[in-house]
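re the bet — no i am not wrong, look at it urself. input seq straight from the record:
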Amino acid sequence: MKILICDDHKIVRDGLRQILNQLEGVTLLDEAKDGNDALAILKREVFDVVLLDISLPDVSGLDVLHSIKAIWPSINVLMLSMFPQEQYAMRALKLGASGYLTKDTASEELLLAVKKVSAGGKYISQSLAESIAIHLDNNSSKQKHELLSGREFDIMIRLANGKSLQEIGNELFISVKTVSTYRSRIMEKMEFNKNTELTRYCMGKNLI
């Protein structure tokens, strides 16, 4: 089994590598520091599983997932996230992810998830599966935020959490002007004028 770890924090990559070294049959463990780095590595080497962080500094993890499944549909992608909300998991699964785990997952569960997705299966935690089931029961029609791209969705959540354009730019390593452009697109698609409206919407949909 060949595994690629994509996360912008070296300490996280080191931790994942240490856990994954416990797996039998792993012939290659490689690392990518961001989305573009991951795509470049995938062009050079064939991998069975990609552990992909959903929040990356250059390209949204969801956009990277979309690219991977478009170019290399046989690769099994396991998303890693700080966000436990079912909205993130649903977006990832719809884009072709084989699984979704939060970063507070126990190492035993991570190993189980990697084994399952490498065999072609799907993996999400039981608690997240229950949340998704409840969400599907309560939401039969397409919602506004589902129209957003991965990066737009990520920035919307940061705006709804009260972060300034400068703070978001610093976190994502993009200019304030670029963040402002994204904000304009988000507001247009969501049909809002103020950040407070975004916050109320996200709270109402349990996104924050």
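see?? The chain has a mean pLDDT of 89. told u. also The beta strands are 2-6, 28-32, 49-53, 76-81, 99-102, 123-124. so pay up
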